[in-house]
Design a protein that fits this description.
two-stranded antiparallel ribbon, eight-stranded mixed β-sheet, Collagenase (Catalytic Domain), 284 residues, binds zinc ion, alpha/beta
């Protein structure tokens, strides 16, 4: 997997492109790098957002310029939502009626930040196919050679994966010892040059299904102070959220805030993940 890591950029700089092409196929994929900072440090910048490279064309995204992008994704009621889902329970259960993705979005959006995600993704959902029976394979590096490394970080990262699994999303994880056999790689770095504590780069296919992902976690803040175990777990939670297809929220009580201030998944984090996985991948 080729990467174009996020580069240092002044705030409000023009977005940068990230592209990914497989060497073995002609398929064009898109890669997204997303970084986050953790804890309540006075942070000097905002994570650089790298926009999508959609198959065959580039969509440049920059904050504030796509505020209206959600509008096309809001459901247009083309047929009534079944009463059993929108109103009081009824006896004599009716024949199940399949909901359209927009109806599912309308029913499930409350209490989530799905709107914020769709706004920066041109109203597209990106996620993994159901991976319950065939869990995603995850390899977590051991960074024993890096300063301030603590073996306990490994368990904290594993616990962060478990926290997302417990939300009920149809994705399970299986940790493997062979990095070459893993779809998800978690690596460590001493620190980022940018004000990040973690970064995720993922790839999707032309149908918006995720195909692989790499997470990098820092052992030190940008200012050189080490992250403690709780902070490592928090930033791992955040990056695994990206891995699952979530994006940032302005809600600072959620772990998917760009600057992570909480230590656990919020109700909104959990509801948003479940809703993403109730929707099909691709444009709504
Ligand atoms: Zn992030």
């Amino acid at each position: 997997m080729q990467q174009h890591p996020a580069r240092t950029s002044p705030q409000h700089a023009a977005p940068r492109r990230a592209t990914f092409r497989t060497a073995s196929t002609h398929a064009t994929r898109a890669a997204l790098a997303v970084g986050a900072t953790v804890v309540a440090l006075p942070l000097a910048g905002h994570p650089v957002r790298i926009p999508f490279t959609a198959p065959g064309h580039v969509v440049a995204v920059s904050a504030g310029t796509v505020a209206g992008a959600l509008a096309p994704a809001l459901p247009r009621r083309t047929r009534p939502i079944p009463e059993r889902l929108s109103g009081p329970a009824v006896t004599n259960a009716p024949t199940p009626v399949a909901l359209t993705p927009r109806e599912r979005l309308a029913l499930g959006a409350s209490g989530t930040y799905i709107g914020e995600i769709l706004r920066v993704r041109d109203s597209a959902v990106v996620r993994w196919p159901e991976r319950v029976d065939r869990p995603l394979t995850v390899w977590v590096a051991n960074a024993a050679g890096l300063a301030d490394w603590r073996p306990a970080y490994l368990a904290r990262v594993a616990d962060a994966f478990g926290a997302w699994t417990r939300t009920g999303v149809p994705v399970r994880f299986r940790f493997v010892q062979d990095s070459s056999a893993a779809e998800v790689h978690v690596a460590w770095t001493d620190r980022f040059r940018e004000p990040y504590s973690g970064r995720t780069v993922w790839s999707r296919d032309e149908h918006w299904w995720l195909t692989d992902a790499n997470i990098t976690l820092a052992l030190h803040h940008n200012d050189g102070s080490p992250l403690d175990e709780d902070q490592v777990r928090a930033i791992a939670l955040h990056e695994i959220g990206h891995l699952l297809g979530l994006d940032h929220t302005t809600d600072s009580t959620s772990v998917m805030a760009a600057r992570v201030r909480v230590r656990e998944l919020s109700a909104a984090d959990q509801s948003t993940a479940r809703l993403v996985y109730a929707l099909p991948a691709g444009h709504l």
